[in-house]
Structures are given as structure tokens and as C-alpha cells.
Hints:
Low-confidence stretches: none
Oligomer: single chain
CATH superfamily of the largest domain: Fructose-1,6-Bisphosphatase, subunit A, domain 1
Shape: globular
Helix content: 25-40%
Strand order of the largest sheet: 4-3-5-6-7-8-9-10
Order of helices and strands: HHEEHEEEHEEEEEEHEHEHEEH
Structural class: alpha+beta
CATH topology of the largest domain: Fructose-1,6-Bisphosphatase, Chain A, domain 1
Strand content: 25-35%
Distance between the termini: 56 Å
Number of strands: 15
Largest sheet: 8 strands, mixed
Amino acid sequence: MEAMTDATALIDSFTAAHAADSDEDLARALVHDAGQLADRMRAQGLTTDYKTSISDVVTEADRTAEAFVAGVLSALRPGDGLLGEEGASRASTSGRTWVIDPVDGTYNFTSGFSYYCSALALVEGDPLAPDALLFGAVHRPTPATTYFGGPGIPTTVNGEPVAPLTPRRMAETSLVTYLHPGTMNPGPVRDTWLAVAGQFATLRMFGAGSVDLSLVATGHAGAWIQRAGAVWDWWPGKALVEGAGGAARRVEAGGTAWLVAGSTAIVDEIAAAFAAVDAQ
Length: 280
């Protein structure tokens, strides 16, 4: 109850300060303040609850940060829809929907590992299969870094433009990726993933898709592959990669769908690698 009361006070003060913001400025400020709110709550101590598995966790910080974002958007963008990981949901009357992940990488967050973020995206049409992805915003409290961009909106880090992505081959660069332990047993999913991931120079697996995609958008990682999942883990980072001149798309292989991002050239190479595995 105390956390929700705090969120209500924050909603009121934030709404008053940002009533005249553009969508872009509002998104940057929202994701920043949501991330900082979660970080403060973590410092005060949190209880962890479990959703589908021991690694699929949620805390009061997740719920409070999402309530903060949803409350602000309800006040400032009442016609827009909401879709949040922790249950925020409202049908759109404007044709637009805000997709919210209050804490991406909650397992890292609860473990004291700084590889987590708050993320959101704005889309037009059905949020599960939108007509347009307008932009994405990601904030990492540690380091204090905000990423913003989208198709037609050059990606920035703390307001500074990133360099356009340059072509790199799989064998010459790093892959950030994730595969759930439940799919690590021998089978089509694991075998397909191994066949493609093994073609990269090196692998990194940290468990926060929007942070991974932020690193791809800034050129700190060469590419990203993950089995297709929730849209709040995909739209924010996809927008950042596309805003940096890269590509982000869905590929079918091994009897499942994969999400792939990087420069246009490396995404084409990854797609060809998946197709080659399927053809064997």
C-alpha cells in the first residue's frame, strides 16, 4: 500500500511537470523515472515472487513502476491504449498503444546485477502485430543511460546520436543471446540455436532483451538472437536498432520463431544460417 501511495504522488507531480511534453519527450522522461523508481525501491529491500519458474520473477518494484507509467499515460494520453508486462491493459481509442516493461531483467535486478532496464514503445494498430512501430525508449539506472529512437528517428544515448551500424560478419563479431534452460535439452530448438550461435566469434548471455538490443543499437554488440517471446521484450529494442540503421526481424527455423537484430547485412547472414540449418 505504501508503494502504491508513493506511485500516486509521483504520478501527480510528474503529470504536472510534463503536461506539455511531446510523445518523444514524455517517453524519455517516463522510462527514466520508472527506472529510477524501481532502483530506489530495490535499495529499500524487496520481496521476490515467482511467476512461471524460479527465474521468472516479479517484485513490488515491477508493479509500482508499471503503475506509475500507466497512471501518467492515463492522465496525459487518455485515448492511447496500454499493454504492460505486469498486467496494465487498456484498449486504445486513438489507434495507438504504449507497450511497457517496467523492469526488464528482473532476475538480474533482484540479484544486485546492474544488467536491467525500464523499457517502453509506442505503436500504431494492434500492439501484438502493429501497423507501425513509432519509437522505443530504454533506461538503465546503472549506468544512468537513456536510449531513444525508432524507424525514422535516429537513435540517441542521453541525447547524443549513435553512429549508424556498420556491416560485420558473424564470424567477426559478438552475439548477445538467450535460451531458457528448459530448452537446453537436445532437440530442434537447442540444436538450431547452437548451429547458428556457434558461428559467431563470441557469445554473451545476460538475460535482459532490451538491454541486449540497446548494445546492438550502439554497436557494442554485433547481433542479437532470441526465441520469440513477449512484445514488451521486443518492440522497444527493435525500435532502437532500426533507428541506428539496422534491421530487426522474425525468422522461422527449428520448428519455432526467432527474433534477430543487427546491421542489415548481419541479419541477412543470420537468416541464411537459420535457413541452412532447416534445410539439412
